[in-house]
Design goal:
Blueprint lengths: L1 E3 L3 E6 L12 E4 L1 E2 L7 E2 L2 E2 L23 E21 L6 E6 L3 E6 L2 E5 L5 E12 L2 E3 L3 E2 L10 E4 H6 L2 H4 L11 E17 L12 E3 L2
Parallel strand pairs: 1-16
Antiparallel strand pairs: 2-8, 3-7, 4-6, 5-15, 7-15, 8-14, 9-10, 10-11, 11-12, 11-13, 11-15
């Protein structure tokens, strides 16, 4: 089956509902400008990366059954960008990164996890994150995408804690980037399992191949 994956983004949040500790350095998500030999970027900008799992989602075999059931699961590493994406500097104190999505809630759950709509009636999907590589530092706490879509809800990451463990941070590399220059940590890689489900509303009508879009 052809599957199009979309509407997942990782943003640096500049708003907080609590009074953060003072770290004296900030972490940013964005595309680098010119990077010099000291790994300092002259600027960062918004970055958009398309996710398309058609290269690693295998053909799905449909089996007889009743009720809501899982029919496939796959996983793979997906780069936001293998070389750029995460940076830091001494300007400010920002350190919260937020993961947002724009999927449509199907109103169904499976084993307590939300199922999201596709363009096919009776066919749904769920997303399970198993690992994230933030510029060389791994966030290995597994989680499912169970929060609402849109800008008001997100999975948040304390980048001061995550990147504070990086030896480059400990060696003061972020302190060398100031006046809105940026020390380039490296890329962000996501490990995601795609879970596919169907229920009794699903009817392929004899089709052997269906184009599926994650809504």
């Amino acid at each position: 089956m052809t599957i199009k994956f979309r509407m997942l983004c990782l943003l640096l949040s500049t708003l907080s509902l609590f009074s953060p500790a003072s770290y004296g350095w900030s972490v940013f998500v964005g595309d680098y400008g010119n990077v010099n030999s000291s790994n300092i970027s002259s600027s960062i900008s918004d970055i958009t990366v398309d996710f398309n799992p058609t290269t690693f989602v295998k053909p799905l075999a449909m089996h007889e059954g009743n009720g809501l059931r899982e029919i496939a699961v796959t996983d793979a590493a997906r780069d936001l960008d293998p070389h750029t994406g995460l940076s830091c500097n001494k300007d400010g104190n920002e350190g919260q990164a937020d993961l947002h999505h724009g999927y449509i809630d199907s109103g169904l759950t499976y084993n307590g996890n939300k199922l999201w709509k596709t363009n096919i009636t009776g066919l749904y999907f769920a997303l399970e994150f198993t690992n994230i590589n933030f510029g060389g530092q791994y966030y290995s706490e597994q989680f499912w995408v169970n929060w609402a879509s849109g800008d008001s809800a997100a999975k948040s990451f304390n980048m001061h804690t995550i990147m504070g463990a990086d030896q480059r941070t400990k060696n003061g590399m972020c302190d060398r980037a100031t006046n809105w220059k940026y020390y380039a940590y490296g890329g962000i890689v996501l490990w995601i399992k795609y879970h596919i489900y169907i229920d009794d509303k699903f009817n392929p009508n004899g089709a052997t191949s269906l184009p599926i879009t994650f809504l």
